[in-house]
Amino acid sequence: MVEALIRKLEGFGPLPEDDKAFVRNLKVRARDFAPRTDIISEGDDPSDVHLVETGFAFRYKDVESGKRQIVGLLVPGDLCDLHVFILKAMDHNIAAQSPTRVVLIPRESILDLLERPSISKALLMATLVDEATLRDWIANIGQRNADARIGHFFCELHARLKVVGLTSDGRLSLPLTQTQLGETLGLSTVHINRSLQSLRERDLVLLKRGMLEIPDIYALQQMSGYRSNYLHLGESGLNFVSE
Amino acid sequence: MVEALIRKLEGFGPLPEDDKAFVRNLKVRARDFAPRTDIISEGDDPSDVHLVETGFAFRYKDVESGKRQIVGLLVPGDLCDLHVFILKAMDHNIAAQSPTRVVLIPRESILDLLERPSISKALLMATLVDEATLRDWIANIGQRNADARIGHFFCELHARLKVVGLTSDGRLSLPLTQTQLGETLGLSTVHINRSLQSLRERDLVLLKRGMLEIPDIYALQQMSGYRSNYLHLGESGLNFVSE
DNA sequence: CGTACTTTTGACTTAGTTCAACTCTAGTGG
DNA sequence: CCACTAGAGTTGAACTAAGTCAAAAGTACG
Question: Which strand D bases fall within 7 angstroms of a protein CB?
């Protein structure tokens, strides 16, 4: 059940056996969430840290005026709220998009984990990569026009999912509605719809029924100015440009 | 010279004496940078981690089409590139805005630091707060119109600088040109200028000669939808559940 | 005082939003 | 198995926030 965590921690290099054993001995429990339900809400002071085991979830922030901004996608192996055990309360919400199973790790267990240098280091690394991803997201929203913005986002998603083996031949699952895509990229639903049509006409992407198809990832990277360096997937043969 | 780092690490609670002693024994050297010069560039593989001791710097990412996005401000005590010792290369640039003194900490020393649970934990916490700030930045750029966007940014800056005692009575130093403000917020220089005028006419902010004045911070928070929870600064500056 | 930024202004263009209606799709229950 | 519904996607038309261009005015400083 906690294997997803080990995979995550080993993303930057193998973990000592005793650390792995320690992780496996954590007493954790699982919890399932239906689509479109909140896993954690702003203001919560959870006593457990949540780890996505299966499913697809996202972080979002409510903004006055009823709008909201999606500020992160969570796929299996991602930690939802490592920060809450330090900080007082959630400063954003997390919602399940598809049926999602979450592993709950008690706050004290996390504190124990942090006493182990290898694990602590691995968590820091994972957090640093998240940070880099957020910076790229800012640049994307801040500087690119709608078409490139959408294209760039798709390139990032493709890269992230490819690493964990969740793509096949330029196809990947993207269970977001066009409205949610808009909330992710700071664009209106209508504009997302029109840009998507334009991208399809140019044979750059095809999004249908939660399935995203990228016929030529290189062409999409080209048009959207995507460069993969910030994901830091390197080393273990994952420092790719396209295929 | 490395006191700034200790202050940073103790931001979330006191550090054991031996850890502090360890930090003080690090062999580091300083380096000065003139305004408008790059401290670190994209693609660099620095052998040292950089810590801002005095001055004001910022992170930025170049985007195709000659534009660029500022993705973070660095004030004294901030670490520039904790991630490079893990990751292979910088994925963005850091530039000094005012005369800036930087402390260089050798990569190996950082690795030694990470072997110490208290320090490692403190670094993780600092990184998690940075992450929260970035998420808020995304929501700001993605969802707010120009006036609220600028106002919100100023509120955040005010909060951050207040904690480190760099504000006095709603006044704070903001050594950015209007063009750079635009690069920070994803707006054109001209639009920044006009919004700034509008904000001034409404007595919300007054920016002149690198000095920002906020007559009524509460009013500004109100108009920009600012809530401070995400900075996790609390009352005394330090309102965390640290143990 | 001259050079080089920065800030400001005006006139014009445009990318993206809003509103409101219509269609399509998938799921529900009779 | 079909009818009904609700959410998701699509369309058109009108609107506006923000961008662009280009030039003037202010400021900093050697």
Answer: 7-13, 17-22, 27-28
Q: Where are the beta strands (DSSP E) in chain B?
A: 29-33, 37-40, 48-54, 57-62, 68-74, 93-96, 100-106, 167-168, 171-173, 206-208, 211-213
Contact predicate B59/B94, CB 8 Å: yes
Is the confidence at residue A174, as pLDDT, over 90? yes
CA distance B218 to A3: 48
pLDDT score for A235: 43
- Chain B interface includes A110 (CB < 8 A): no
**Residue of B19, B70, B134 to mutate for A, most A C-beta atoms under 10 A:** B134
Q: How far apart are the first and last CA of chain B?
A: 27
Could you report the per-residue pLDDT of B152-161, keeping only the tens digit for each? 999 999 998 8
B145 CB neighbour count, 10 Å cutoff: 11
**Is the full-model pTM beyond 0.85?**
yes
For chain A positions 116-175, those within 8 Å of chain B (CB to CB) are 116-117, 120-121, 123-125, 127-132, 134-139, 141-144
* Residue A13 touches chain B, beta carbons under 8 Å: no
